[in-house]
Amino acid sequence: MLGKSQAKYIQSLGQKKVRDQEGVFIAEGPKIVAEFLSSSKTRILQLYALPDWIRANHKDCNGVELVEINEGELEKISQLATPNKVLAVIKKFEALSEIQTKGKISLVLETIQDPGNFGTLIRIADWFGIEQIICSNDSADLYNPKVVQSTMGSIARVNLFYTDLADWLQEQKDVFIYAAALKGQNVTAMKKINEGLIVIGNESKGISSSVFDLVDVRITIPGKGNAESLNAAVAAGIILSHIV
Amino acid sequence: MLGKSQAKYIQSLGQKKVRDQEGVFIAEGPKIVAEFLSSSKTRILQLYALPDWIRANHKDCNGVELVEINEGELEKISQLATPNKVLAVIKKFEALSEIQTKGKISLVLETIQDPGNFGTLIRIADWFGIEQIICSNDSADLYNPKVVQSTMGSIARVNLFYTDLADWLQEQKDVFIYAAALKGQNVTAMKKINEGLIVIGNESKGISSSVFDLVDVRITIPGKGNAESLNAAVAAGIILSHIV
Lengths: 244, 244
Prior knowledge:
CATH 3.30.1330.30; 2 domains
């Protein structure tokens, strides 16, 4: 049974302001909830689930507050068009104090504001084994329900930091900074790297000039057609598949 | 000035049924309208535009019915969150009677239903110079306003056909059929091709077994991480960047 005030509370977590105040966010569906149940990055505070999900999964929920609800109640609290059996209220990740960039590849996102694109980029990073993403402060909110869902569980594995990007990049003197550009090295002819920062810019405006000035290696994805640009996530996927 | 019945008519073109009946669709914004004004694929029937757009572009609108409207009227008929100066009512493309597959690369989409993904795939095809896409009948509608907008103008250059995919692929005995699969040739080690059908499957279900049975060459995108799958458009972009 779901109390009225509980329902209201969960609904209010759709707003960034409330998520920030409470230090929690929500994730939905058996797949992503399973990722968080087995993740060491954070912990689930409450689970709201249908009886059949609870029957199948209660053994994996040790210690988590488990509330059995019916489909009508799930519909009320779900942010999805098609609610999917279980909703978790999860504690936000601990902010790491230091970002390590030596000896590994990091993805750097500037002003990616579309939640779907942002989530897809997290998923791509995870696919290629990239464990950390550094974002400009004006990027989408990691805890936005649309971002959480579109990562398809990768959010539980990839670390993400918000920072003043131009300032931060200026301090990264030990590692190369790579970025997609119209005139640069052909990505299909590039050698693999195992260290570096790969910058992906805003969907329509690209990379800002203050960040672009700091780029060491410009990368071009050759195209034959007339399309002006590729979607940011697609460009990232292509670059990573060639150089990682 | 925009008449009430005109406004209602344009709003109704958000529905597939009405678009099919009328044989028209809408596209919005200076960039995509400019693509259609210079395209030989179809023609614009009416343009609804703000005074400043008309002043700058009326010379390129030869023969097209041009209606000057104000911002409030544009807001009423626009399908965009942020209306963008001009809306065009456009005649649907002529259906070509025959699809040629020899000597070229075609993209084949099975059950891509998300309009944003569908549009992004059209844009990717255009980027890599692929001029035709064959889709299963249950794919998104090419003329859905969200699809039109997310192609960013590529819709004016790429030809798209709907068909019963398994039946049609069975008839394509002269060209190789490629598809992404978990166990296949490593995409980063593949040779370039200049002929073939590249199949991209549904976002969550992948390629159906009846289509998968017809695939000649299975392609794998190697990943290091734990993400289960890549977004369909990202996978398509990666495959095309390696083999086209």
